[in-house]
Amino acid sequence: GQQVMQIPQYQHVQEGEDFTTYCNSSTTLSNIQWYKQRPGGHPVFLIQLVKSGEVKKQKRLTFQFGEAKKNSSLHITATQTTDVGTYFCAGPGNQGGKLIFGQGTELSVKP
Amino acid sequence: EPEVTQTPSHQVTQMGQEVILRCVPISNHLYFYWYRQILGQKVEFLVSFYNNEISEKSEIFDDQFSVERPDGSNFTLKIRSTKLEDSAMYFCATAGTLATNEKLFFGSGTQLSVL
Lengths: 111, 115
Hints:
The complex is a heterodimer.
Chain A: E1 4-7, E2 10-14, E3 19-25, E4 32-37, E5 44-49, E6 55-58, E7 61-65, E8 71-76, E9 85-92, E10 99-101, E11 105-110
Parallel strand pairs in A: 2-11
Antiparallel strand pairs in A: 1-3, 3-8, 4-5, 4-9, 6-7, 7-8, 9-10, 9-11
Chain B: E1 5-7, E2 10-13, E3 19-24, E4 31-37, E5 44-50, E6 53-57, E7 65-68, E8 75-79, E9 88-95, E10 105-106, E11 110-114
Parallel strand pairs in B: 2-11
Antiparallel strand pairs in B: 1-3, 3-8, 4-5, 4-9, 5-6, 7-8, 9-10, 9-11
């Protein structure tokens, strides 16, 4: 079945260092979404990428969608303690509607 | 921003008991989902619901699970005979349309503990 994979599973950084998480799909995606889940919280939508090769920025966060629309990445520049949480990528399921989530990358930031 | 409301926030139950988890969707949303997250693991799709019927369900959503929207507001997930492995955080999510680029709004979740 369709799979969405993310690496790394965990990332521990010193505050101020950069962070990147990578997402790969077993199938071509019409779009990819990114969610952030704070510790003890629920997933919250961050952004959606639709076009091949698309790059979007939200302040210190840079999101990319691969040319083949099968992979994506999230890069955080100069991490802050407020960036702590788990970042999930998600792609639409084969039948549409539902989202298939990656395993998530848990980011911890040491002050 | 509009919110999806879930109750209860925590539910402790004995193995074999029935539980009902409740969700109040965002008012103009039409598509409803239940997801499950076992501690430290990924968010897993359980079921989608539209127009008062199940649109799609995963392998996890077996005969012990059921969903309904009995009164047009609450969207419920019933687990008929809970098992230890049902312990997880259960998230309700809603969307306005079925477009594949529609973002999901998640509720705060119900932490289910089966003893």
